[in-house]
Design a protein that fits this description.
With about 210 residues, the chain is mainly alpha-helical. The chain has seven helices and two strands; from the N terminus they run E-H-H-E-H-H-H-H-H. The protein is elongated, with a radius of gyration of 25 Å. The N and C termini lie far apart (about 65 Å).
Length: about 210
């Protein structure tokens, strides 16, 4: 079975031409927004021999909520994930993900926020990292190789993560090593994130006890 979709995501397409009440009539007749394009799919399907093609859209629709509601939703989401981390006894609470391409442009914003800790994933280039020093930000470097794989739904045990960290401590000083997942958690469900982070914190506490002996 073949599918007849739109050619690309509808995220960046205006929603409905009927909302454009001030456009010149002739100009308006030349245009088609999301609603108009979607309405063509069933018609095209029935025009084809046998009418066997399935119709669907591709990607996301344009956001249909107001900027104010969007900001409220973002704040509620941040509050939720910060609370989740506090309940798991995470040391450093993560809530804002800056854009990769504008890394050097956000250094001043980070300074203005009085950020205590800045985490930088290894996908950042050396050139971008150097911008931190050029802007005069002074920090102590740490390394977080990742004690479990977030690209899998499997939830590793406390002992498994502790053992991975022990192997890292064979080549890294304890004051340098950070106990963290190997990447961001956006690909995982909360049912997977919560127990995994709980086990990770327990693994870190177990290692602290061992190192204190």
């Amino acid at each position: 079975n073949l599918v007849l979709p739109t050619s690309c995501s509808l995220l960046h397409t205006a929603v409905d031409l009927k909302n454009e009440t001030k456009l010149d009539a002739e100009l308006k007749s030349w245009l088609a927004f999301t609603a108009q394009n979607i309405s063509l799919l069933p018609m095209l399907r029935h025009m084809l021999p046998g009418g066997l093609l399935q119709g669907c859209t591709t990607g996301l629709f344009k956001r249909l909520i107001t900027e104010q509601d969007y900001e409220k939703a973002i704040k509620a989401g941040i509050d939720s994930v910060v609370k989740l981390q506090e309940e798991r006894d995470i040391d450093v609470l993560i809530h804002t993900h800056m854009c990769y391409s504008n890394f050097s442009d956000i250094i001043h914003s980070i300074i203005d926020m009085d950020a205590v800790v800045i985490t930088i994933e290894d996908s950042q280039s050396d050139e971008k990292l150097l911008s931190v020093f050029r802007e005069g930000v002074v920090f102590g470097a740490g390394i977080g190789p990742g004690v479990y794989d977030i690209h899998s739904p499997r939830i590793p045990s406390t002992e498994e993560m502790a053992e991975r960290a022990r192997k890292m401590l064979a080549v890294l000083e304890s004051k340098v090593l950070w106990i963290n997942p190997d990447c961001g958690l956006e690909t995982r469900k909360y049912a997977e994130v919560v127990p995994a982070l709980t086990n990770m914190v327990n693994a870190a506490k177990q290692l602290w006890t061992e190192l204190a002996k």
